[in-house]
Design brief:
Layout lengths: L9 H11 L4 E6 L2 E6 H18 L6 E5 L4 H12 L3 E4 L6 H11 L3 E5 L3 H7 L8 E5 L12 E3 H5 L16 E6 L9 E5 H11 L12 E4 L11 H8 L2 E4 L6 H10 L4 E4 L1 H13 L11 E4 L6 H11 L2 E7 L6 E5 L12 H8 L4 E2 L4 E5 L14 E6 L16 E2 L2 E10 L5 E6 L4 E3 L2 E3 L1 H9 L4 E11 L3 E10 L7 H9 L10 E4 L13 H10 L5 H5 L1
Parallel strand pairs: 1-11, 3-4, 3-5, 4-8, 5-6, 6-7, 10-11, 10-12, 12-13, 13-14, 25-26
Antiparallel strand pairs: 1-2, 8-9, 14-15, 15-16, 17-18, 18-20, 19-20, 20-21, 22-23, 24-25
Helix pairs in contact: 1-2, 1-3, 1-8, 2-3, 4-5, 7-8, 9-10
Amino acid sequence: MTMQRTPLLLSRLMERGPLLAPDEEIVTRTDGGTHRQSYADLRRRAHQLAHALAAHGVAVGDRVGSFLWNNHRHLELYYAVPSMGAVLHTLNIRLGVHDLAYIANHAADRVIFVDEDLLPKLEEIADRLPTVERYVVCSQTGVWRTTLKDAVDYEEFIAGKPEKYAWPQLDENAPMGLCYTSGTTGNPKGVMYTHRSTYLHTMASAMTDSLELSAKDSVCAIVPMFHAMSWGIPFTATMLGTKQVLPHRFMDARSLLDLFVAERVTISAGVPTIWQAVRAACEAEPARWDLGELSRLTCGGSAPPVSLMRWYWDNLGVEMIQGWGMTETNPLGTVSRRVAKRSQLTLSLDQQFANIAKAGLAIPGIDVEIVDEKWQPLPHDGEAVGELLIRGPWIASEYYKDPQPDKFHDGWLVTGDVAKIDSEQYVIIADRSKDLIKSGGEWISSVDLENTIVALPGVAQAAVVAQPHPKWDERPVALVVKSGGAALTQRDVLEHLGRHFANWQLPDEVLFVETLPLTSTGKLDKKVLRAELKERGYQLPDLRRG
């Protein structure tokens, strides 16, 4: 029997939602309230957008940049650009101007779509972007000024264009999206997603044992659409015809909570710093928001503390789903649920949360492995620690126009994470390899220390970094942000840690700070912390005494 060979193209998935749920809403928060459109509107406008791009000369394989918040026009680009065979390059609006200019030039973007309030940042580097032929301004007011060349209003750009575009039949391995890593060392690295890889990732992320997104949900993706394609949520939600709630630039905790209530959000996705801020807002005004509709939160980017996940369950009955991945993994690699197997149904809550603290189980289709320095596999016993490798149909096998052979080995992506895998095949991330602290020949996990510190009442955020030591090689130092004027001392923090860690693992000093630097994707920026300590000539206490 011969099966029909149908290429796995994004246009097939993106057309499904409007066909099945033409009247379902897509809601964007605006300065004056909300913008609402239906899936039928989304389809019509995406087809018009494809015609407008084609009229400008954008062809199959050309890169189209987006410099936008999470909003309905960005979603139209997600729909139109890949479906017409071009490549959507999501530019990270939080990057510095040097990195921003580098990636726009490296990608050779021909057109860039930009939100009105983000114009000044692009104007600052416009003379360094020779490949960009046109800027399309996405305005809420319809009244804007810019020094950018050949700038046109989005609504004018698509006005009068036909409402039906014949999506081309492409090779399923053709590129459809381009995202860049945050560039912790050297220049950012480009990761090119294909139709096939994103199609398969979209199907997998909708699984019950994955993100469990369904057509019955109202989803608010807080994770930026410029970061790893918003974890694929716009594609999955559009495929299903799920109500989408887009926060635009209004991502403070109170605005998000107001939006959750008004739009009856059932599931949302963001990084731990977002969920810590939302928790703080709820605790400050416990009677203000009725979150009875909310059932699940997806958390990624860095490991959420167990205390945070437990708070949402104990106080709101909301399950926090932990996801692990990277830009290079499209991005989902593993998912951790409170109950992931039938055998876990009888576990106590404490046992369930011990499981959810792990990075989780590999999504179907994905292989994970840990290896030693000689690339030899290590036992999955929950004790052996090694370099985490991952491979699968949506995992990058190379960087875009940038060979990095040390990041790929024999068909595997070398993640840069140090991890264990236990007998039930849970991945347990110990740390980023560059953030592990090696003291006296032994490894100390900065992540474990941070999560334990954050569990202490009165702590809002914590970061632990290594500092050089002539005898021990490195020693940990903790930087802590207090919450609500808490009267915490170094002794309080160390005594709390002492109940969980051996003395030699405890930080040599606890520094209280007002804020901690974050990367462009909302993670703790330990590179900046280490640089700041070095710049101010910081020394460990015993070295100061010496």
